[in-house]
Amino acid sequence: LHWRELGHVLTEVQLRWVAAAVVVMLLQYLFLAIRWGILLKHVDPGIDLRLLWSATAVMWGFNTLLPLRAGNFLRPAVVARERDVPYTTLLFTTIAEYVCDTFGILLMLMWMIALLPPERYESGFMAPVKLWGPRVGLLALISLALIVLLSTRQARTFVQGLLRPIPSLNVKRYVLATFDQLVEGMAAI
Question: What distance in Å separates the CA atoms of residue 29 and residue 73, rounded to the nearest whole number?
C-alpha cells in the first residue's frame, strides 16, 4: 500500500457522495430485509423488521470481512438467537431466497437472449450464452419443481423409506427433523 497516495486520494473524497452511498446501501439492506421477511411470514408471522434489517446488515458486514460469503450463515443465526425459530429453518429460507434470485436472473438472461438480434449471438462471446442459457434455465425450472415437490407428503414418506436401513433411531429422528426444517424453510417458494 502506498500510504501517501492513499492519503492524497482520501483528501479529495467528496463526503456528500460517501453519504449518498451509505444511504443507498442502508436502503438496499432494508429492501433485502423486507424480502426476507416475506419469505419468513409462514415461519414467524410476527418477526420484527428491525431485527431482519440488523441481521441483513450483519450478513453483509461479515461478507465483506470473511471469505466465501460466510456472513450468509450469520444472518439466520442473528434471528434464531432472538426468535423461537430453528436456525436450520431460517438457513433454508435464505437458500429459498437464492433459488428465487437464480430463477429471476435466468429469466432475465432468457429475455435478453430473446431480444438480441441473431447476429449478436451467432458468434463471439455471446454464442455460449445462446447455447447454455436455455439449458441452464431448464435446469433451474426442474430444480424449482423439485423444491416444490419437497413439501409433499410423498417426499417425507420417501425420505423415511431411505432411512429405514439405518439402525439408529436418533439418527433417523435427526435427519427427519432436518428434512422437516428444510421443507418449512423452502415452503415460501
Answer: 16
Task: Identify whether the C-beta of residue 71 lies closer than 8 Å to the C-beta of residue 60.
Answer: yes
pLDDT by residue, tens only, the chain of 189 residues: 899 999 999 999 999 999 999 999 999 999 999 999 999 999 999 999 999 999 999 999 999 999 999 999 999 999 999 999 999 999 999 888 888 888 788 888 878 877 878 777 677 777 787 778 778 778 878 877 887 788 787 899 999 999 999 999 999 999 999 999 988 888 877
As a whole number of angstroms, the distance between CA 55 and CA 71 comes to 10
Cell of 73: 450463515
Overall pTM > 0.90: no
